[in-house]
Amino acid sequence: ESVSRCTKRMLQPPCRRPFHCADGEPIIHINEANILGEIASIRITSGGSGCIEGGELEARAIEGFGGGFHATFTAATRGSGLGTSGAVVSVHIDNSGSGYFKPPHIVIARGGRGCEGPLFEAILGTRKYHALDAYPGLGLHFEIISVDNPFDTIKTLAIDGDLPPLMASSTLSPPVESTSPKGLTSRTFRWEPPRNVAGSRPLSFCFSTEDNSGEVLPSGTQLAGKTDSACFMVTVVRCTYAVKTRETLLHVAAYYSTNWVQIWAANVLLQDPDGNDVSEGQLVNVGHTYTLEKGDEMQWISRKFGMSVDAIYNLNYDVAQTPPELLGAGQRLCIIPNSCSTNV
């Protein structure tokens, strides 16, 4: 398998200048899909009693799947007029999180002094996203294009809100407007995920666009024009590296602090032990996948495969961010065994 360095365009053909379309280069239209995993809302099934302050909520994932959720809640105090005194009356979600296979348990993390018996129910969302895979190495590179009729002008094409903190190193090129044909604006998004982000929960972000078709009132006020948006859900694939130009297995091994023999052994289709038969965009396994079984603990896995716990965490972001007691059977790990240090 391999990934292409070429941009992945979100529109149907034809693709014309200034969008750098090589002859015969296909335009890839990425279909939207419902991806369950983010917490869309919190239902207060019981406001409880006795609360003298609000606080923060966290989600305890079932079977260890899901993370990143954060919310605050407000409690009605005497004379506030918000509701029954001492009860939780509202919840505000700061971060919806992602990767939840089942609605998690919502509990008070901080604050909530005096609260007794409040109950919360997590409602998972069904928002549509374009699903994309990203790999350490070559990274993620695509072009987002806003199309309008030639009589209007596209005012904005930008990321809607904030990017996930893990994608802070990404770049977005300035808008490029097409004059022939008119009505097209393009921006290029690039992100190279570091190795310690592999295995993260899906990272979601959206683009929004608006044109200048809004009505101009007699006062000179410009009303909003037509708008549209597109959302993406990026999964950083664990245990896989996308080879860059002129890289060999030695480069890949150095990046993962291992040796080329380990990398070569994990890729049965590579014939050349030196890895000179790898090409740009080729997907290379950097280790082996281990699936947690009931009763497995990180210290035991560390001894079995000759890796420190920190080294395991550095290859599995989701595991590093999950309390050990919440990890369950079925959780996958990327492992680069050290045969000189294993203790089976």
Layout: helices, strands, pairs:
Blueprint: E1 8-9, E2 32-34, E3 39-46, E4 55-60, E5 67-75, E6 88-98, E7 105-111, E8 119-124, E9 128-134, E10 140-147, E11 154-160, E12 171-172, E13 176-177, E14 184-191, E15 203-211, E16 227-236, E17 240-242, H1 249-255, H2 260-265, E18 283-285, E19 288-291, H3 298-305, H4 309-315, H5 317-320, E20 332-335
Parallel strand pairs: 1-10, 9-16
Antiparallel strand pairs: 2-9, 3-8, 4-5, 4-7, 5-6, 10-14, 11-15, 12-14, 13-14, 15-16, 17-18, 19-20
Structural commentary:
It is a single chain. The chain is mainly beta. It contains 5 helices and 20 strands. Strands 1, 10, 12, 13 and 14 form a 5-stranded mixed beta sheet that branches. 31% of the residues are buried.
How many beta-strand runs? 20
Low-confidence region ranges: 1-29
Report how far apart the termini are: 33 Å
Please state roughly what percent of the residues sit in beta strands, choosing from under 5%, 5-15%, 15-25%, 25-35%, 35-45% or over 45%: 25-35%
Question: SSE order, as H and E?
Answer: EEEEEEEEEEEEEEEEEHHEEHHHE
Largest sheet: 5 strands, mixed
